[in-house]
């Protein structure tokens, strides 16, 4: 039975009216990962949400069996043959080693023997309520940043007074404590104010590798001293559309985050990698159209990863895996990457599991 590439464009009784959306258009708009499976168990269609969840382009999945893309449980075929399948709150692994926490459902198409639709509901996305909580937290940060602007003026007065006391023979220990705490609060306010920076990014087609080399050298001589930093780069990577200063800030944040996660880990290791993902596309933020994001940059570390209770909230302000953390670094990373038209995500991948922060950015210049 012939099926059009864009989906089921015909049905019994004649073609659809021209104004009726076809299968591809309808499924492409879904925020849920969806695939169309043909009678030979081959993947005929995968929407954008599926590409992003599985970190694999539709083009690379076409014609493969579902089992060649996802490591399915042993009971999968038996349960599917009973007429549909549903797996709830399950952790599955892709054949590329990417762990996903999903609700999986598979249903046969009526009057189309052998045809099936598979959907994967990302549990992390469900818990985030389609980023509603994150948007609210970001608004709170904006309000805190504006308040911080007003607080910095009296802080300057307090610091000056402490310095005058020290100069006039005051208690050095107490005046030092005052100035240290004032400086710490001022630095925290400065970081919050980064979220209210509405200036447009200075985007240019840029060679990524001098920037990555700069990040590696800064890390190796500072906060990541003593940690092996490896590189696994695609030498044929084209120019990337980015703001150089913002990109360096993002990478330094992620590498510093990785170095802190490796405290106490035997044989700590950080890996910087790049790759070109053909056909990869995503929406940089809710309400914005999908766009090609083929440039992948990963910061990978051999640490234990984020605690499960906060893993789905890492990019929200004031969420931190460490008691002394302020919870602003990763939230700022997401803002800066989004400003450049990209997306960033967290995952545990491979065997043994490694922590992966993956950035997807647009290509610079013509494809």
How would you explain this protein's 3D organization?
This protein has 367 residues and is an alpha+beta fold. The protein folds into 3 domains: 117 residues, PAS domain (Beta-Lactamase), CATH 3.30.450; 65 residues, no CATH class; 158 residues, Histidine kinase-like ATPase, C-terminal domain (Heat Shock Protein 90), CATH 3.30.565.10. 35% of the residues lie in helices and 24% in strands. The strands form 5 sheets. A 6-stranded antiparallel β-sheet has the order 4-3-8-7-6-5. The chain has a 5-stranded mixed β-sheet with strand order 10-12-15-17-16. A two-stranded antiparallel ribbon has the order 1-2. A hairpin with a 5-residue loop joins strand 3 and strand 4. Helix 8 packs parallel to helix 9 and helix 9 packs antiparallel against helix 10. The chain is elongated, with a radius of gyration of 25 Å. The two termini are 36 Å apart. The N terminus is likely disordered.
């Amino acid at each position: 039975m012939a099926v059009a590439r864009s989906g089921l464009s015909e049905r019994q009784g004649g073609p659809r009216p021209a104004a009726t959306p076809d299968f591809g258009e309808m499924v492409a708009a879904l925020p849920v990962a969806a695939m169309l499976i043909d009678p030979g168990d081959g993947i005929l269609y995968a929407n954008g949400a599926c590409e992003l969840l599985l970190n694999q382009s539709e083009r690379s999945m076409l014609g493969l069996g579902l089992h060649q893309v996802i490591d399915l449980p042993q009971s999968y075929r038996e349960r599917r043959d009973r007429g549909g399948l549903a797996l709830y709150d399950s952790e599955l692994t892709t054949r590329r080693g990417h762990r996903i926490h999903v609700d999986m459902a598979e249903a046969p198409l009526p009057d189309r023997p052998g045809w099936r639709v598979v959907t994967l509901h990302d549990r992390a996305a469900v818990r985030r309520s389609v980023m509603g909580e994150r948007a609210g937290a970001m608004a709170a940060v904006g309000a805190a940043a504006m308040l911080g602007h007003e607080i910095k003026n009296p802080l300057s007065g307090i610091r000056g007074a402490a310095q005058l006391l020290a100069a006039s023979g005051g208690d050095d220990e107490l005046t030092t404590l005052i100035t240290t705490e004032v400086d710490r609060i001022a630095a925290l306010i400065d970081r919050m104010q980064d979220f209210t920076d509405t200036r447009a990014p200075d985007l240019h087609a840029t060679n990524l590798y001098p920037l990555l080399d700069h990040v590696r050298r800064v890390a190796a001589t500072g906060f990541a001293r003593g940690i092996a930093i490896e590189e696994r780069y695609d030498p044929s990577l084209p120019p990337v559309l980015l703001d150089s200063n913002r990109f360096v800030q993002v990478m330094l944040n992620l590498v510093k985050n990785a170095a802190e996660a490796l405290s106490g880990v035997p044989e700590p290791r950080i890996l910087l990698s790049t790759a070109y993902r053909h056909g990869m596309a995503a929406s940089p933020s809710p309400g914005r159209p999908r766009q090609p994001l083929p440039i992948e940059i990963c910061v990978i570390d051999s640490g234990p990863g984020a605690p499960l209770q906060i893993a789905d909230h890492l990019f929200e302000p004031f969420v931190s895996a460490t008691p002394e953390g302020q919870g602003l670094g990763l939230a700022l990373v997401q803002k800066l990457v989004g400003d450049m038209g990209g997306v960033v995500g967290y995952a545990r991948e491979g065997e043994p599991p490694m922590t992966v922060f993956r950035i997807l950015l647009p290509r610079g210049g013509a494809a």
